[in-house]
Each structure stands twice: as structure tokens, then as C-alpha cells.
Amino acid sequence: MAFNNNITPGTPPLIWSDVNDAFTKINENFDILAVAVGGVGGLVNFSSLDTNVSPTLDNAYSLGTLGTNRWKSVFLAEYHDVPGDQANGVYIGSAQIRGRASTIELPANSTVVGVPIKEPFFNAVQVDNSLRIEANTTSAPWGETVNLNSGTAMQLVVSSAADSITFNNTGVTGLAASTGMSVSAATGSVTVTNTGVISLTSTTALPSGRTAGAGININSASGSGIKITNTGVLSIEAGSAALTISTDAATGIVTITNAAPAGNAFRYVVVDSDFGSPIEANSSNGSVNIVGGAGITLAKDTALDKVTITVNPVFDLRGSVFGDDSTVMVNAIDRVITAAGGFIGNITGNSTGLHTGNSIGIHTGNVTGDVVGDLKGSVVGDDSTFIINGIDKTVTATSVTAGSLNLTARTISTTDSSGMTVTATTTFNSDVTVENDLAVLQRLTVQGSRVMNLSDIKSIVAASTSFADFQTKIAAMA
User: What is the pLDDT of residues 181-193, one digit of tens each?
Assistant: First the structure.
């Protein structure tokens, strides 16, 4: 701590106003600032702050100035998508600019002079739902380009004004004619012509009684071709082993016979004796769906055509629960839970009775009765102020009316001069530092044997002819 050595005593006689002025100048010449930060006194070091720094007014002060007096560097913590790091970044208004590794992430819908920085776009072109062309670079100014090339017999016409690409087929590349067919492959169109029917031959003679041409449609409208279509049944096959198929070759009639007729079966499914509204099959292949409910688990065995229904004891229950001795464990009417062997879990609501054992967690509400055992945590009064703050390890009491109070903290704080009153003799077993004025209304006792009244000091100052004479008179009072 530096001192001002330019203070000199006045000429004799030394008066009290000179002494008072000397002490005032000494107090005004301290060049080191020490304040209490976080409850502990010390020097203010702006390179190792452990609290937030905020202005007293919103939208009133600037950090640096435009053009001159700028800060050299601003360092912010990296953004991470984890609790505690999600607010890292630079905020301009409500827009958050995030730093991720060596990149900067701007808020969504950010613009440059009203133009979106990143507009929606396609990053891939897919052909025939399988082949893909994907962009793999972001080179300036517009990224990668997809190139469409004209191919054989294919022409691409691009219109910048209409933002369109037209695909024109300039000709068929190949179409080979077969027997009875001719092909014309002029540019832009393909014509296939039937040059004549090669053969139409019957391989099977009609049985007696069968009408010729029955079930057959013949179309020869083109004049040079014949189209024969079967308008009847092409084939009949048995769907299961219970069905047999027989055909009369003379008449062409097919007979289907059920070799295993159906027996008796249940038509309806009645649920909980509700015969007035049973479950009925909507079709010949309808199914009954059995669905498990609360606490019910279903398992099926298709090989054995078996369904197993299992009751799960862990489920939500609405109603009362009784023990093996018929005592009520959960009273759904009065909304009361009785746990003779103990209760494990969260309790919401009133709890009445003897509490024996540990209580771990947050308790909200009044506690009536004695608390026997350790109390770990915070206690909050009716006005939501902390009486015992388990986080900051502080106790707030309006008054202490009995017993002794041992304080091991380093700082005792009060809001004004009348906030702390000592009514009996107070002993300090260590050095006491007074940073500001010390007012003594009666007398000041030093080391128990030296007593000096302020009125005596003023008299000595007035009677002293020099500073050395003042020191001699003060020493004589010891």
C-alpha cells in the first residue's frame, strides 16, 4: 500500500483541526481498491472474475465504440447441445449466433439485405427410384452443377425464360420386324404393320354336342389380322383337398363337389354375457382380435392354436387395495394410503402419523412436531425466504432469544448501522480493522490500562507547542 509523504504538520502550536485534516488526507490517498466479492474481501481483479458482468440499464451502454476505441478480441465458450452449454454464443436481440468447433452457425431464416442466406434446395437427383446424383461440394458461387446431356434419339430444349427443359424423341434407335410384321422407323414416329396371318390351325376336334365357336370372340376389323379371345373360363382348379373337379367332355360342363361339408360351428362371440350385441363375422374369412388390456399380457402359439392370458401385477389401478388380512392398504374413497411396513417413493399431499426413519428429498408444507436426527437441506419460511439455505450454507434468523451463538464465518454483514447492536462487553481476540470512521461515544481503552478520552486529546493538542511536545504529552498519559 502506497502512502502520500507530502503531508507535513503545521507550525506550533499544533491544533486539532490540523490533526483532523491530516487523517482525512491520509484516508483520501489510498491507491488500492479492495471490496467484498462473493462474501470475501480482496482486490478487484478483472482478469479473474467469478461473477457475471451486466449493465444497470437495458439498451443504454455500448461495449467499445464504432470506428475507434474497439476491443481487440472477444472470446466466447463453444456451443454444445448439453445442459449448461446451450446458451453459449453471441446474442443480437433474440438471435443466437453459435460457435461449433471452427464453424459459425447462424439462426434459422437468417438473411443478407433481406435475402435468405440458405434457401431450400435439392441436394440429390434420383433416377428411376434407384440411381442418385448427389452434391458433394459447396464451391462458390452456387455450389455443384447437375449436367443433363442429350443422347441418341433424344433432344433437350432449354428455356431460361420459362425455367424449363423439354425432352424430345428424335427417332427410334431400333425395332426389328418379325414374320408377318413390317416396321416403318421414320423420324418421330414408328409404324408396325401386320403383313398377313401366317397360320390358324385347330389341333383338337370338337366332341359331339359341343357348339362350335362357343366362348370364343374373333376380331378381324383391321382387315389383315385376326384376334381370337376366350370369353369364358380358362381353367378351374380345386382350392383345397375338400373340393373335387369333374368335367363333362361332351357338354363342357364343369362340376365342383365339396367332399368334406362343413360341420357345426359357433356363429357369434359373446363378451361378458352381452347376448344382445355379440361379435359376428362380417365375411367368410373374418377374424376375432383379442387385445390385452391394463395388466393383461397375451401370448399366442400358432402351432398349437393356443392363446395364453397372463395377468401382470404391475399396472395402474383405480380403486381400493386390500391386504391378505382384509385390511385396507389403499383407500380409494378417502384417498388414503396405509403402509405398515414403510413407504418408499415420493409423497404428495398431507402425511399424518409417526414418522420413523430417513426422509430423503424435497419436503413442501408445514412440519408440526419434533425433528429427531440430522436435517440436510434448505428450510423455507411461509414468505418463501430461506431460513436455512442448504446450498449457500447460511442461516437467517430474525432473533436468537436463548443459548449461545458461535460464528465461524469470516464476514458478518448488516444493512445499516442499527442492524447489529452489542449490549454487553465484547471481546475481540484478534486484530480488528476499521475501514471507515470509528465513532467512540464514551472512551477508548487500549490494552486495558491506557484510557484516553477524546476531550483530553483535544486539550493536549491545544496545549502542545510542537508535534514532539504532543507526542510527549500523549506518552505521559500511559
Answer: 777 766 556 777 7
Cα distance between residue 187 and residue 341, in whole Å: 95
CA distance 398 to 401: 10
Q: How many CB atoms lie within 10 A of CB 36?
A: 10
- The residue to which cell 466466447 is assigned: 76
How many C-alpha atoms does 217 have within 13 Å on its Cβ side?
6
| 13 preceded by a cis bond (ω within 30 of 0) | yes
List 228's β-bridge partners, or say none.
218
Question: How do residues 117-164 score in pLDDT, each as one tens digit?
Answer: 766 666 777 877 788 887 776 555 556 777 888 887 788 888 888 878
How far apart are the C-alpha atoms of 437 and 142, rounded to whole Å? Answer: 73
How far, in Å, CA of 244 to CA of 69, rounded? 103
Distance CA 211, CA 191 (A): 39
Beta bridge partners of 321: 330
C-alpha cell at 13: 502550536
| Secondary structure string (H, E, C) spanning 155-207 | EEEEECCCCEEEEEECCCCCCCCCCCEEEECCCCCCEEEECCCCCCCCCCCCC
Which residues contact residue 111 at a Cβ distance below 8 angstroms, ignoring those fewer than 6 apart? 117
How does DSSP assign 209-235, residue by residue?
TPPTTTTEEEE-TTSS--EEEE-S---
Q: What pTM value is reported for the model?
A: 0.25
3 state SS of 22: helix
Rounded CA gap, 282 and 274, in Å?
Answer: 18
Q: What's the N-to-C CA distance of the chain in angstroms?
A: 30
Partner residues linked to 254 by β-bridges:
247
Amino acid at 254: V
Query: What pLDDT, on the 0 to 100 scale, is given for residue 224?
Result: 56
Respond yes or no on whether the N-terminal peptide bond of residue 141 is cis (omega within 30° of 0): yes
Report yes or no: 99 and 79 within 8 Å, Cβ to Cβ.
yes
Q: How far apart are CA 84 and CA 193, in angstroms?
A: 79
User: What are the angstrom distances between the C-alpha of 49 and each of 55, 56, 71, 72?
Assistant: 15, 18, 18, 19
- Report yes or no: 107 and 95 within 8 Å, Cβ to Cβ: yes
Residue 42 makes CB contacts below 8 A (sequence gap 6+) with 34, 35, 36
